[in-house]
Amino acid sequence: MKPRFGFFNMIAAYLEKKPKKDVLIVPISIDYDKVLEVPDYVAQLLGKPKQKESIFNLIKSIFSLFFNRGGYCYVRFGDSISMQPSLNAMDQLAKNVSLEMQACGTITSTCLVSAILLWHRNAVGYTLKDLHGDIQWLVQILTGRNATVAPFSSIDMLADHALHILNHPTTPLPLTCSADQILSMAYYRNHLMKDFLPDMCITTVLSSPFYQSKQKFTIDMVVEDMQLIWKFAQRLCPTGVSDLKCAVESFFSAFPALVRKDDFGNLTIEATAWRVDRFVSFTRMLMWPFMDALELVMHVLKQHVAPLNEKHRQKHHQFSERQVVHWVHSLIQSGMIEHHEAFSMESIKQALAALVDYGVLMHQQNDRVYEIMPKYTTIAAFEQLNHRIQGLRKPRRKLWEVQASTPAYSSLPWNLTALLIY
Question: How many domains does the chain have?
């Protein structure tokens, strides 16, 4: 979300009159193991009506504080930022403050465990021991990237604490959850995105069918194919990365076993190593729910708007943000999307914003009314773009395609086992 400048503008107006004075902005990060407002926030994301304020609800919420375990709160202060040199660059000042707030943030236990449970959602035979191993691995990755992780005396204590806060049973792990539970865990998981933003875009692109078919490619090709999802990622989380080519080169340098380079500088993905790599699997999991949101938006526009533009070439049909949200939510029961987070109103709104940034849509009248750009008004052009987006989504696994890591059919859920036997 773009920052607001009302308070900054008030201070800037004062400093313009007092050029010898300065104001220091101190970024503060306050992170909670449990945010009490998350259930209400999730309900609004799913389009449910906002709970009306009343004395009864106020008393109920106060009473519940005595029985809810909220966990720990972490407060950290970032480096101060001088405001006087940035009076003519409020955008850059706001970005610097946002980045510094992110840098001084704390990765909580619920953030770690939520990310891992959503990574292995619907997995078969996943145990508490596996969870501890994944937490240990993820903590090592984060500390290697200078992130601050919540201090616990042991990984076991961290996992038990987070599972209790999340009201998640210890067996089975992970548990197939409702949309509300998944969105609640996604709220905590998304705090990790700042530490993996370029990586999750790179691994998503390189996991697409073209790159996995042993085709030769160059870094410039990867950068070009990243443009749309990178614009989406920047909408989701502020980042200090400005040179995508350097980010891709750094990725290949960090993971040399995943690519093969020939004498002419062309690259090829090592498909076998890529499929089993832990880091690749985790980072693309962070991006796949948002790719599903992008696919949902493209699907409803292709269904409701593109045919009208094709039929009436001289008239570009407008549509509102509210219409898109309604069209997308009508598909909730369709089963076409694996990630429930994709139906979040915020994901849908940011997908629309990314399509505007990429040049597929443009604003009309105000920020909530859109129309398709002339380049994509034909169904053929729209379908071509949609096909590219579909290639960046998580491949749909058939029920009978049991993973090789599955120990035995006896460990499968009873309904899936019955289907296989039948």
Answer: 3
Sign of CA dihedral 270, 280, 133, 172: negative
- Neighbour count for residue 297 (Cβ, 10 Å): 27
**Whats the size of the chain, residue-wise?**
422
Nearest to 378 by CA among 319, 299, 302: 302
Provide the β-strand partners of residue 259: 269
Q: Which domain holds residue 219?
A: 196-278
Residue range 238-265, pLDDT digits in tens: 888 989 999 999 999 999 999 999 888 8
Question: In 150-227, where do the E strands start and end?
Answer: none
Q: Establish if 1 belongs to a structural domain.
A: no
Contact 107, 142 (CB under 8 A): yes
CB half-sphere exposure, 418, CA atoms < 13 A:
3
In sequence order, the β-bridge partners of residue 318 are 371
**CB contact at 8 A, 292 and 269:** no
For residue 330, tell me if it sits in a domain. Answer: yes
- How far apart CA 384 and CA 344 sit, in angstroms, is 25
